[in-house]
Design goal:
The protein has nine helices and 32 strands. The chain is α+β, with helices and mostly antiparallel strands. The longest helix has 32 residues.
């Protein structure tokens, strides 16, 4: 498809089942990216089921750069906070490429960063080839694809009149759907009208003369929709009007042809025609399936193709249309026995490995409902973030996508919170439990602008659960600022408790008065010797090195152009961050595929105190610069001046440098 001038048309219609954000309903908008091009819809206000009906987005960077289109549904923050991702869908364009000019209207599931379902988004997709690059006007493909028979139902849903809701009187929020077989098209919703104007064109593939066109008019409601009426048009009746088609008003009836109650009528212009481009797409699809089958079943298909001419059964391509053409090659009894033995041995070995891994995971963490309790007790010696030499600290705790905050204490560097935050995590899988963490951040509250991070600490859910009584109890931890490379060392100290309870676990009851008295006595004894820091695990530390091997990058987008409008060379480098330290490679000049061949060494202590390594790829710009990748901020790439474009190296679209990835 790379040698033709083509385009992809995308229309974001609606979404449903979106989750709530902090403060209530979300303000969603959709971000659509195809290759290096990006478009977005308007922002819908305070709804979990927005209807954008956005204007059609046209993407031309399809042939060279895109095998799929990425749709991200975001929450628009009304304050200075950053927009929040609600869900993401990656839609393969293979179906669109094989059905040129045919509109695909469907609901696609959204997933969050952890791969969990979080709603659906409705898109209308269509792929078009430019008329100047159309296929030759010969009938060879048409003959191979079934002669000149009609294969496409084409028409327009014009308008409706006299619509009546079956349960109440008054205007309705109406929309109309057309279905032929398994293909369906739908109009936008027209608000509060008994005679809505739809004016929606549609194209639905159909090659069966015995099929029917089913038209339904529905009333949109807060939860679901209600059928107003439907009409059924036999294909033979449409075919009787030939290629020009017909225009008629269709009286709406009840479900399964129920009559006796006036429901209104809908006007259709409809024709059953032959779409030559769609026929050729089907022919190409058949040929590609033949190639795929040949690769899967090996020489068996090749032998059939070669024997076709010997049997004088027509051209070589004819055998592709036979029903038994895709049968695998027949084996002798001995070959079949050896194959069965190899398969059973491989399956047995794979089963043993899987059982062993599942046993280890099940023994470590059981799936089910988990409860996390975080007691933020007090802070000491916090870094001053305000000009008066003090801070306005509060604690923000995040656990598995959920967030809670403590109260704000004004103008201090040491304070007592004594706030208990609870998190309920239902139906967690073993993998989700092992990947979850408790992230506690102490931030400086500002009335205007972004709240600065003083420091943070992270607890692995699995490690806390493995401790005695499943708790990290009333201990001090050091706070490290991973968002600012200039802040080295501890930025303060936090005293806290973290409890993780899984299926069948019970929380230990503590005598708070007696324990508090013992803490006071211990602090008096240790006065002058500093704070004794704890942690989920405190084995002896051993100095070692973490090595990040940087080999090469591929297919990088162009970020700069010269005065003549052509792309200039990239000046790429890799920057990595681990445990608050950052390191980068040398700068490489290249077009799109830089070769690095370098190692980035980080001195660390075992066991390590961080959980992830952030890796970013940036394009150097003279006079530019920016922060290194930050842990806990979505695998963001380092910026290198204004030429940065966000293309995540792991496949997700992000804002940042040329790309970013995270490994753990």
């Amino acid at each position: 498809m790379g040698d033709v001038s083509d385009r992809l048309e995308v229309k974001v219609v609606a979404a449903r089942g979106l989750g709530e954000v902090e403060g209530g309903d979300c303000n969603p908008f959709a971000l659509v990216r195809c290759g290096a091009e990006e478009e977005r819809t308007a922002v819908a206000s305070a709804t979990s089921a927005p209807e954008w009906n956005a204007s059609t987005m046209i993407f031309t960077d399809v042939a060279d750069a895109a095998d799929d289109v990425v749709v991200a549904v975001m929450h628009k923050a009304l304050s200075a906070a950053r927009d929040q991702a609600l869900g993401r869908a990656v839609i393969s364009l293979r179906t669109c490429f094989q059905a040129v000019g045919v509109e695909q209207d469907d609901w696609f599931p959204l997933e969050d960063a952890d791969g969990r379902a979080c709603g659906e988004v409705r898109l209308e997709l269509a792929y078009f080839v430019d008329a100047d690059d159309d296929f030759p006007e010969d009938d060879s493909d048409d003959e191979a694809a079934g002669g000149g028979e009609p294969n496409m139902v084409r028409g327009t849903i014009c308008r409706a009149r006299g619509l009546r809701h079956p349960d109440r009187a008054g205007p309705v929020d109406a929309y109309c759907t057309v279905r032929v077989g398994r293909h369906k098209a739908s109009t936008a919703t027209v608000r509060r009208s008994n005679g809505p104007l739809f004016d929606h064109a549609f194209e639905l593939p159909c090659g069966d003369g015995a099929a029917c066109v089913r038209v339904k008019v529905k009333a949109r409601a807060a939860f679901g929709s209600t059928l107003i009426g439907e009409a059924v048009l036999p294909m033979v009746e449409i075919a009787a009007h030939g290629e020009p088609g017909c225009s008629r008003w269709c009286r709406l009836e009840g479900k399964d042809g129920e009559v006796g109650k006036e429901r209104g009528a809908v006007e259709l212009q409809i024709a059953w025609v032959r779409d030559r481009r769609y026929a050729r797409s089907l022919a190409r699809l058949g040929a590609s399936l033949g190639d795929l089958a040949g690769g899967l079943w090996g020489p068996g298909l090749g032998a059939r193709a070669e024997g076709a001419e010997d049997r004088d059964e027509g051209p070589k391509e004819d055998w592709l249309l036979e029903e038994d053409a895709f049968a695998p090659r027949h084996l002798t009894s001995r070959e079949q026995e050896e194959l069965d033995e190899r398969r059973s041995a491989g399956a047995m070995m794979a089963g043993r490995v899987v059982d062993e891994l599942e046993g280890r995971r099940a023994a470590a963490m059981k799936p089910g409902d988990y409860a996390v309790q975080v007691h933020v007790i007090e802070c000491r010696d916090l870094k001053a973030e305000d000009l008066n030499g003090l801070s306005d600290p509060y604690a923000r705790v995040r656990v598995h996508g959920r967030q809670r905050k403590t109260r704000v204490v004004k103008k201090v560097t040491s304070c007592v919170f004594d706030d208990v935050l609870h998190f309920s995590l239902p139906n967690l899988t073993t993998a989700a439990v092992e990947a979850a963490a408790v992230d506690i951040a102490i931030l400086d509250h500002d009335a205007i602008g972004r709240h600065a991070t003083i420091g943070s600490a992270s607890f692995d859910l699995r490690k806390v659960h493995a401790l005695a009584d499943h708790e990290f109890y009333r201990k001090w931890v050091g706070l490290v600022d991973t968002t600012n490379s200039a802040d080295n060392g501890y930025q303060g100290f936090l005293k806290c408790s973290v409890t993780v309870l899984g299926p069948g676990d019970e929380q230990r009851a503590h005598d708070l008065d007696a324990e508090y008295q013992r803490e006071l006595e211990r602090e008096e004894e240790e006065e002058g010797r500093g704070i004794a820091l704890g942690g989920p695990t405190l084995p002896p530390a051993r100095l070692t090195f973490l090595v990040v091997y940087c080999w090469e990058a591929e297919d990088l987008p162009a970020t700069k152009r010269n005065l003549l409008g052509t792309n200039t060379l990239l000046k790429c480098y890799v920057v990595a961050e681990a445990g608050g330290a950052s390191c980068r490679t040398q700068t490489r000049r290249c077009r799109a595929d830089p070769k690095f061949g370098e190692e980035l060494w980080f001195p660390v202590t075992e066991p390590v105190e961080f959980r992830r390594v952030a890796v970013g790829l940036a394009d150097y710009v003279w006079g530019g610069g920016g922060p290194p990748p930050r842990r806990g901020d979505g695998a963001r790439a380092a910026r290198a001046g204004p030429a940065g474009i966000g293309v995540d190296l792991a496949g997700a679209t992000r804002d940042g440098g040329l790309g970013g990835a995270r490994s753990g």
